[in-house]
Amino acid sequence: MGQQSVRWGILATGGIAAAFAADLVDLPDAEIVAVASRRKESADAFAERFGVTRAYGDWESLAADADIDVVYVATPHAAHRAAAGLCLAAGRNVLCEKAFTLNLREAEELVALAREHDRFLMEAMWMYCNPLVRRLKALVTDGAIGEVRTVQADFGLAGPFPPAHRLRDPALGGGALLDLGVYPVSFAQLLLGEPDGIAASAVLSDEGVDLQTGALLSWDSGALASVHCSIVGGTAVTASVTGSRGRIDIPSGFFHPDRFVLHRDGRDPEEFTADPADGPRTSLRHEAKEVMRALRAGEKESPLVPLEGSLAVMRTLDAIRERIGVRYPGEAATATATV
Hints:
By secondary structure, the chain is α/β, with parallel strands linked by helices. It has ten helices and 14 strands.
């Protein structure tokens, strides 16, 4: 693919789809050519809002549209396997929202479909594409704080969310873990890889989803990660990485930071701040630009968000759910991991 505009299809019309579309509109080398919803009225309203010429009232028409270079799947995660799978099988490249799927089995099926049809597939883990997070990872990799000993990260929303809300609905993959906990887990695994041991505890709702979950991840290296998520309490949404020779603190919004502070032993603290040219901290443009870069380079996955990394995170989420006793409708007893 050359330097012509990358033509996007948007599958689903909720809040995250609108946020992504707004950022795409601002990219000169991106074009939204179609949007699909299971309700034609929703697709029409979305298309009018963002100047999209084609609005489909079903997913199949979008998947079959050969004018689309890549589809952004923005459904709730319970529908990711069906929506992304439909697009991959039809020959479309796919950027799929996080959590990647409900469980590891579904994620493995999507990866297998992408490889079978020789298509690009990436989880929309925008944190991994954030320039400041990439800078933090590079510092850690280069040994700025020595060997990583501990990672701490939290993400909690105050709520309260009524029982009918998607975050409380088991059929939609509700609960804190898949919606919010995926960020602390992904942050820890960005720096340490897949854990060797997992312990977890949670408070469950009457519907059977987790209201808040805490997990302790451990590695054979001796490193530990403490991660927490909640939909019943607004946390500071901070992260800290401690090494043998220093520490890095992200004081707020760790998954889309505007700054972090590097503390090296024996030296004054160093503050790293986001480049204003990179746009607001809530911008999704970085993951969109990475997808378009990869497509133009002929790559089938992104080195920033590799598929094996997404599968590893899903293995961890499965293992945590097994330990806290959360299972979604239709999942077999063997669907969860036994790490």
